[in-house]
Fold these 3 entries.
Entry 1:
Amino acid sequence: MSTEKLYLESIEAGYFQNFHATVVEATDTTVVLDRTLFYPLGGGQHWDTGTLNGPNGPLSVTEVRGRTNVEHTTGEGHQLIAGDEVKGSIDWEHRYAHMRMHTAQHLVSGLVYELFNGARTVGNQIHADRSRIDFNPISFDETMLNTMAEAVNLRIDEGLEVTDSVMTRGQINDIMPPERTNMDLLPASVKDLRVVQIGEQVDMCPCAGTHVSNLREIGHIQILGKKSKGKGTQRVSYNLHIPERVREPFVDEL
């Protein structure tokens, strides 16, 4: 049995904060649930934090890992056993920052590919306060960085919608070049992919991360700097200004 990832149900599912679940496995320091809203480390995105409230009171979730059975680290003494019912609550400020940062990464990656001769995204790290993207092959100068930031912020101001759907590899490849969507980095065994799209194919990328539903929620991007990583690869770091449009989590529980 694998953990049901509630945040993958739709873009809107990322806006839920609370959910109910059942413990299916437990160790001295971790618990596996039958369903979760907590995003585990993966795809360059950091894990969610929050709480699990069970028969013995609230527990802090400090780390979340695993792509099949998702392990929630609560520390020693949690006293939870298989069959216990819990209510989970994610740290919304932390989650929303990741949603904004990750959507910004998609937008930046798509525009860099279009603006600078097909430069690919070869790595990224999404955090709440600042994030980074590795591009290859490219050598940014200040003019190029300014051009990139201006293009990104113009798209944000357009308020493009962000949507998701399930597509096959063939369907995606008919629309976007495989090198743009980094199709070669995905296991060949995965046939049906969750695809996140910005506007009318401004960017389209297979992704299991959490995202905002409208670019206006990102806020303008600020480039913090660049760093050479060798062999034609450069790392660009960025953070985000406070957005004009901010959404609150849904009050309903999953």
Entry 2:
Amino acid sequence: MARPSLKNFRRIVVKVGSSLLIDSNAGEVRTPWLSALAGDLAKLHGEGREVLVVSSGSIALGRSRLKLPRGPLKLEESQGAAAVGQIALARIWSEVLGAHGIDCGQILVTLQDTEERRRYLNARSTIAKLLEWRAVPIINENDTVATNEIRYGDNDRLAARVATMASADLLILLSDIDGLYDAPPAANPNAKLIPVVESVTSEIEAMA
């Protein structure tokens, strides 16, 4: 089965992992990489497609700005770092997309926002209005208020929920992992990449 062409999709959600966006050693954004991605998104936008971005990186950026030490952070430290990082992350996306004449809007959500009906509809309406205005929604988990009990846990889950909420045609997950493997590639050097999953079988579910 061949991979589908992007030309077949109108509304596309792109999830950007923090490992791609942020240089963990320098604690700064990988500017050349992000600029290249912004160019790709601008091309899709220019073709009339609707693009949504789910972006990680607020805690990592906040940690860098605040010069916090390496290692695990306490909950309140993570929330404080996210508060600083969310401002930096929004500015960065505004700049790289603005260079292509594209406006963007920040949407911060928690797990509850997509599980409670009224909040779900409010978030969906905001996304729909931004897309109507041809602005790119930049969506992230609201780490400043989310606790372990009400967190998604990772932005892959958030991106899947956003894709459903926005009635997207395609979800693209960008990360430092090439794709689905039949075993954890970091632990098993013989793990094999599965380039295309034609149907979700019980074997695929067990593998995941």
Entry 3:
Amino acid sequence: MSSDTRHAIETDQAAREATGAHPYGRYLEEFEVGATYKHWPAKTVTEADDHLFCLITMNHHPLHINDVYAKASQQGRNVVVGPLVYSLALGMSVSDVSGKAIANLATEELKHPAPVFHGDTLFCESEVLEVKPSRSKPDRGTVKVHTRVLNQDGVLVAEFKRLVLVPRREAGATPAEGDVE
């Protein structure tokens, strides 16, 4: 086969999923209040991950990038920078929560109750708190989730809530009473 042979490629997400590809994200109708999605895969945070994130974001606090400084700290070692923990959790949740999202509307109540260290493995899960079809745009609605991040020992190291605008599978579905504007 020559290198200039071109093949047809399907770029539409729904068409690719119709072939048996793993669904990416969910439509509004697929979310159920109380459901908890245990995201996969987990992620082990390396020193390189932490240092690169700190350098890219210009967060040069020595607790994150200086072993000598960190050794004299309360924790006695480097602590992974919090925004990296949040970013990893958000990314880990995309295939289950916001893979079909129109927009991420809000993040609230972000907390880091325990530190993350180099070598910790993060496990993430999201619980559906609220599902509201839009009253003004029948092709969409909002989903609110509570995401928790646990380390390999089951310690809660981060949590947050977020509101995501997602499409409906049935664009012309009739909204119910109490729906979002």
